[in-house]
Here is the input.
Amino acid sequence: MTISKPDSRIEGLLLVACHSLLVTCFFLAFAQPVRANTCLGECHADIAKVADRHAPVAEDCLSCHRQTAGNHPAAKGNEFSLAAAGPALCFKCHDPLPQGKQHAPVAEGKCTACHDPHGGSGRALLATSGAPQNQREVCFRCHPRERFSKPFPHGPVAMGACTVCHDPHASANPALLRKSGRKICLGCHADFAQGLRKAAFVHSAVKEKECTTCHEPHGGDKPALLKEDMRELCFGCHQDIKELVERGKSRHEPISGEGSCGSCHLVHYGDHPNLLFKEEKALCLQCHGGGNGAPPAGGRDIEKEISGKKYLHGPLAEGKCTPCHDPHASRFASLLKGEYPGTFYAGYREGLYDFCFGCHDKNLLKEGSTATGFRDGTRNLHALHVVRDVKGRTCMACHAPHASDSAKLITKEGVPFGSWRVPLRFEKTDTGGSCAPGCHRKMEYKRK
Ligand code: HEC
Ligand code: HEC
Ligand code: HEC
Ligand code: HEC
Ligand code: HEC
Ligand code: HEC
Ligand code: HEC
Ligand code: HEC
Ligand code: HEC
Ligand code: HEC
Ligand code: HEC
Ligand code: HEC
Ligand code: HEC
Here is the structure.
């Protein structure tokens, strides 16, 4: 804001004053301007003490005050009026404030609700406390302090630097913000802005919505200025996942844990698809392997199950777990993406193996079908073992779900059967194979 230079100030003042009051006119015309020093001595020591004085105060009290009677200071009465009322006084020397959407007290002309006309303890005629940018006490005259004193305050708010974000007078942006939307945030969070520009993947919510969709700009009751606990925040938009987690038969434990969605996802942007903070397999094995020294989640070391194995189940060979497991929750056991019995025996019914048949040919269980290599002539040995009303063998009786050193993912170590592991002793030939399992004597099958 520029200051207009009132060269003919005294003349102007005289004119105005003469008009209003003859006595004052006389006084002013024949007396010297009331130099500040005259008044600041013993009488107005409070003004003299002001740390950062308003320029005209140091020069001439009468640039703002008019003496309405001649007996001050002798009578010590209130014999002064202001040279102009309200903001008009200020605008005698200052350019008018920008129009547009003004802050309520500005629109009402209450300049002195914030500014002390004589000076302040910091710059801009404001009462500050501590650091010069700590102007919050001024704001707290009208805005309740409690709202800005939450357990997790935002740095600049705790510093009282309200006006780094807000223009105290007027702004074209909502909430008197100095810049619109995220620009205000990214102005300070420069490393974030840089990361955002470089990242391969940006969360739509961050790209398309304001930062304040998720964050309290001033501070809040949650860490990281979050409006709600992370999980609830995410569920707010990801309803499908919320429903699955709430209603599913199996739910992935980390989601309800402390890290919640952040155990696997970056929130703003990242270099891996789905905002994962590392490659999928490495991510899963971080908790489901013994690599990091900690015991694996659930006690089962999947890393050990697969590492160094000759045959990896298709998706695993491509570094994927999620074609089979939903990382969040599932309507089925073990976070599987389809129905699958988690037991050694199960009475057969339609749909029981939907999980496997999401990817494999359903006909491999069909009597007389040649869709399977596990047959003796045309006798389907898959059907023989699996399709039984009672004690049908489930796939896990013979196949390992993740990896094996035997061809066709036949389990080598054997399948847990109570406290025992049932060895299969499978041998594959060009036209068939043989098994000598714990279940029966060695038997051979030949497709031709
Ligand atoms: C830039 C204009 C301006 C100048 C210059 C100025 N004043 Fe004031 N003064 C005001 C205004 C405006 C008020 C009314 C404050 C209010 O209503 O909150 C005021 C109020 C006062 C008051 C009464 C209320 C109080 O704060 O105690 C005194 C006394 C006073 N001024 C003395 C002085 C003296 C002495 C000088 C010169 C050293 C001076 N003023 C210079 C604008 C000015
Ligand atoms: C007689 C002329 C005059 C009047 C009337 C006047 N000011 Fe000033 N004001 C000045 C001058 C001169 C400066 C110093 C400008 C500079 O340093 O660039 C100043 C500076 C300021 C500053 C900046 C101080 C700082 O530390 O940065 C503020 C804020 C201010 N005035 C507010 C007001 C308000 C509010 C009013 C009305 C109550 C008012 N002024 C009335 C002349 C005036
Ligand atoms: C709600 C409080 C508030 C009100 C009301 C207010 N101001 Fe200010 N004003 C401030 C703050 C805070 C600053 C310092 C801004 C900063 O730190 O950048 C300021 C700065 C100024 C400045 C210094 C130049 C500048 O823009 O930085 C002038 C001049 C000024 N105000 C004049 C006025 C006038 C004239 C009015 C009345 C029409 C007024 N103010 C009303 C809070 C207020
Ligand atoms: C004299 C009282 C007063 C002071 C002092 C004051 N405000 Fe306000 N402020 C108001 C009022 C009244 C409103 C309008 C409230 C409403 O609309 O609910 C308001 C509204 C606001 C808004 C919202 C504007 C919008 O358009 O949504 C912001 C931001 C704001 N003030 C910031 C500040 C800051 C920062 C300070 C300190 C520099 C401050 N206020 C000091 C009275 C004040
Ligand atoms: C880091 C930037 C930033 C700082 C610092 C900041 N604010 Fe805000 N403020 C905002 C944003 C952004 C909004 C808009 C909130 C929204 O859209 O939900 C806002 C809104 C407001 C509002 C109006 C809406 C509401 O929540 O009532 C007021 C009043 C307000 N701020 C006062 C203050 C005061 C007082 C301070 C200092 C104690 C302050 N602000 C410091 C960014 C900030
Ligand atoms: C004036 C500079 C400034 C602006 C503007 C600013 N911030 Fe900050 N922000 C900081 C500082 C300083 C910290 C504290 C950094 C630290 O502790 O490492 C911080 C911390 C944060 C934190 C982390 C808090 C925590 O407890 O971990 C979040 C989240 C945040 N800011 C979001 C925002 C958002 C959203 C906006 C825009 C509304 C914004 N910031 C605007 C300076 C700013
Ligand atoms: C979809 C909700 C959401 C949006 C939108 C969002 N954030 Fe966050 N932000 C979070 C969550 C959740 C955390 C906590 C992350 C954690 O604890 O791992 C966080 C943490 C932060 C942190 C502190 C930790 C860090 O990563 O440095 C900063 C700073 C931050 N956000 C700034 C921003 C800024 C700036 C924007 C806007 C460009 C923004 N956020 C938009 C949800 C969001
Ligand atoms: C304001 C709404 C909103 C919030 C809150 C939100 N998201 Fe999103 N998120 C979206 C939208 C929109 C998409 C775009 C994908 C879509 O169309 O479903 C998305 C996509 C994603 C994606 C897929 C990213 C990709 O590259 O395809 C992940 C992962 C994600 N969000 C995680 C989270 C997490 C974790 C949280 C909580 C911190 C969260 N979201 C909060 C709206 C939101
Ligand atoms: C254990 C790790 C893990 C946790 C915890 C996790 N996710 Fe995911 N999320 C993933 C993986 C891996 C993918 C990609 C594979 C896929 O799409 O199934 C993914 C994909 C997504 C997607 C995009 C695909 C889709 O399903 O819409 C969204 C959105 C998402 N997650 C949100 C969330 C939210 C919200 C939370 C917290 C409630 C959360 N995630 C917790 C691992 C996790
Ligand atoms: C942050 C650690 C963590 C990460 C990362 C993680 N998990 Fe888990 N997972 C767990 C914990 C803890 C359990 C619960 C173990 C238990 O039941 O004792 C669990 C359980 C499981 C279960 C069994 C669920 C049930 O209902 O029995 C499966 C399957 C699973 N995780 C797969 C995955 C997949 C796939 C990934 C990668 C997308 C993954 N996990 C990433 C910690 C993790
Ligand atoms: C081709 C499908 C498939 C892929 C890919 C796959 N799994 Fe599995 N997983 C299964 C099946 C089927 C089961 C249930 C049978 C069992 O427990 O042996 C299972 C069981 C589990 C269990 C034990 C669940 C429980 O209830 O205790 C964990 C943990 C697990 N998998 C983690 C992973 C991880 C980590 C990956 C990726 C590195 C992965 N899985 C990849 C099919 C798969
Ligand atoms: C997400 C898809 C998917 C699911 C679900 C799945 N598989 Fe697989 N499976 C594959 C792929 C891909 C291969 C490797 C390609 C091939 O040889 O057919 C494979 C290979 C196999 C093999 C070895 C075949 C060979 O010729 O070497 C067996 C055995 C097998 N799966 C059994 C199962 C069983 C049992 C289930 C259910 C528990 C199952 N699969 C679920 C995708 C899947
Ligand atoms: C009694 C042991 C046993 C059971 C139970 C079993 N399989 Fe097999 N499966 C085999 C053998 C042995 C082969 C290898 C056949 C060959 O190529 O010689 C095989 C091969 C496969 C193949 C490769 C393609 C084919 O059919 O040749 C798939 C896929 C497969 N099984 C899926 C399943 C599914 C799904 C289940 C559960 C519904 C299941 N198996 C149950 C023993 C079994």
About this structure: The pocket of heme C (ligand 5) is lined by residues 136, 139, 143, 148, 154, 156-157, 161-162, 164-166, 175, 177, 184, 212, 217-218 (CB under 6 Å). The CA atoms of residues 248 and 330 lie 5 Å apart. Residues 1-33 have pLDDT under 50 and may be disordered.
